[in-house]
Structures are given as C-alpha cells and as structure tokens.
Design goal:
ATP hydrolysis activity, about 40% helix, about 325 residues, AAA+_ATPase, alpha/beta, Rossmann fold, Alpha-Beta Plaits, ATP binding, nucleotide-binding, single chain, binds adenosine-5'-triphosphate, six-stranded mixed sheet
C-alpha cells in the first residue's frame, strides 16, 4: 500500500534521508521509530506529497506521490506533528470546512462530520471553540480531520507529542481502534508507544533505515549476548574474577550500591544460570538472587542507534 524506493532528500548539501526503502502492506500498522532529527518527518513529507525526493520514488496505493499527487492525497489521512487548526472555529465548523477542502460532497458532509466526531469522541465538544479545548481534544480534532472521507491510509506523525499521560492513553486507544480498517504508518520517537500499537517496526537513524521487523524478532535477532543478574550475600567483588573465567561468560560487572549485585554477560546461545549458581555456591558464597535479564526494545534501539553513530564517527575520522 505504501512503497518507498531509494528515497534520498538533500536540504542544500545536507542529506536528511538516504536510500530509504520500505513497504507497508495493506492493513498493516507499522511504527516508524527514530531519534529526533533521524529523518521521519522528511520521509513522511515525501509520502504525503508535500515535497518531492531528490532521488527515489514513493507510491501510495500504486500511485506516484509526485506525479499523481491529487489521487495520493485523497488516499491519505495525515496527522502532522503540529496540527494546523483554526483556533477561532468551532469543532464542527472546522471539520465541515476541512470536509469541503477534502472533497466530501455537500450532501454527505454533515453525516461525514458526525461520523468522524463519533469515532474520535468529539460529540460533547462539537460547539466549542477549538482554541478553548485541551491539547488532547485538539489532537482528537486533528485525528478526526485526517479521517474525513475515510482514507484507506493514515500517516500519523508523533501523534502523542505534548500530551499528558491520560491524553496519551486516550489517543493510543483511538489509534488502536482504527487499525482494523486502515493501513497506518505511525511515526514516533517513543519506543513503548510503537511497541504497544504496532506489529512491525522500522528504525531510522541518521537518515537511513537500520532495522525492520516485529518488536519480538528485533529483540531476538539483535540481542548479541544474554544477560544474567546475580546477587550474592557478600559485596560481590570476590566473584567477579571467578565468574569471568567461566567458558561462555563475556563480561562480569559489579553493580553500583555495594549490595552484592552483579551483571553477567554470556553467550546468547547458552543458558548459563545453572553453572553460575553452582560456581557461586561451590565458592562458599550464599546465592540470594539469579535471573535472566531480557533486553527491551529500548535497549535494542539504543544499541542500534549508538552503533550506527559510532561507526559513522569512525568513518569520519579514518
Ligand atoms: N527544511 C529543512 N532545511 C534544512 N535541514 C532540514 C530541514 N528539515 C529537516 N532538516 C534536517 O534534516 C534532518 C532530518 O530531519 P527530520 O525533521 O526529517 O527528522 P525527524 O526524524 O522527523 O526528527 P524530529 O522527531 O525531531 O521531528 C535533520 O538533521 C534536520 O535538521
């Protein structure tokens, strides 16, 4: 449904994105994740026909975003990072205006506005002036305007930015409810958000896609080592050397706090908890706690982003 092929965009001589290639299948909800400045908005602006790429092609529903931009715009509901709302208008007035701009036929306009207000829970505020609404409700209005004309594709750029925790839960729930009927690309720099809502995640860093997979597969594939947390009855320092000598152990670090806590990095292919437990006990030390530590998607993301940055810096030096 969405195809990006070799997208590159230069702002002057600076490449904002380079060779960005991905596909989003019909009915998929895909997270587009990356730190600030990674190139998410640039990619989205190309997909939403706001500007052409310097190189590459973008298609939505088989149509070229640059050459068939009118048709593409009709297929996309877009929630930009900063929703341009007319603050002095009422919710209903603004949505009626937006419906007209989106080409909803005059006789269907009222029903369509009612429909999107229903989906986004705006019926109680339909006569309120937009400027008087909370940020959460303004975001709902933004989402409602993206849903006008029931476009098959939704592109949502940082939909929860600037909202309070209750509003965030609200908007996430709304987006989750929409996924049955739409193909959704959700850009965010917040990992738990993407992991919660999306079945597939694309990670972009420094203008390039560095990984694409389900949150679970990304965690499994990219985890280079397994980690075991250990707490012993002594200060723990005595065990660092002993455990470091075990075959399969890559690194042992004493945790801050002087409470006998150690983190052990081991070969990913082996479960070393048994041998670690035996070793500790055989050395006459009481074992208080032992457990595997799963890397979160957040750790994976940090690992990817940091590795990429370090590699780029290395290249720049050599
Ligand atoms: N109009 C512009 N002119 C020059 N450089 C730009 C312009 N817009 C973006 N950039 C640069 O392009 C790179 C990618 O920016 P982009 O806004 O696409 O990232 P992003 O992932 O959306 O980040 P954020 O989450 O902060 O919005 C950044 O280095 C940014 O400074």
């Amino acid at each position: 449904m969405i195809q990006a092929e070799g997208l590159t965009k230069f702002y002057g001589s600076v490449p904002a994105i380079q060779n960005v290639t991905f596909e989003v299948e019909k009915g998929e909800i895909v997270g587009f994740l990356g730190p600030n400045g990674a190139g998410k908005t640039t990619t989205i602006r190309i997909l939403t026909c706001y500007m052409p790429p310097t190189v590459g092609t973008a298609r939505v529903g088989g149509r070229d975003c640059f050459q068939d931009s009118l048709e593409v715009r009709r297929m996309i509901g877009y929630l930009p990072e900063n929703v341009p709302l007319y603050g002095e208008m009422t919710v209903r007035g603004f949505l009626a205006f937006a419906a007209r701009a989106r080409g909803v036929e005059a006789r269907q306009r009222s029903a369509e506005v009612k429909r999107v207000m229903g989906v986004c829970g705006l019926e109680n505020v339909e006569r309120r002036i937009i400027a008087h609404l909370s940020k959460g409700y303004r975001q709902r209005v933004g989402l409602a305007q993206a849903l006008l004309n029931n476009p098959p594709v939704l592109i949502l750029d940082e939909p929860t930015i600037g909202l309070d925790p209750a509003q965030i839960v609200d908007i996430r729930r709304l987006i989750s409810d929409l996924r049955d009927d739409h193909t959704i690309l959700l850009s965010s720099h917040i990992l738990p958000e993407v992991a919660q809502i999306c079945r597939r995640v694309m990670i972009i860093n420094r203008g390039q896609i560095v990984a694409t997979d389900t949150p679970a597969n990304l965690t499994a594939q990219l985890q280079k080592s397994a980690q075991v947390f250990l707490r012993v009855a002594r200060d723990g320092a005595s065990m660092v050397e002993v455990l470091s000598r075990l075959p399969g152990v890559q690194q042992v670090t004493l945790q801050p706090g002087n409470d006998g806590a150690l983190m052990i990095e081991t070969d990913r292919t082996q479960d070393m908890r048994g041998v670690i437990a035996r070793t500790v006990v055989e050395h006459g030390v009481d074992l208080l706690e032992l457990r595997s530590v799963d890397l979160s998607l957040e750790d994976i993301f940090m690992q990817l982003v940091t590795e990429e940055t370090a590699e780029a810096e290395q290249e720049a030096v050599s």
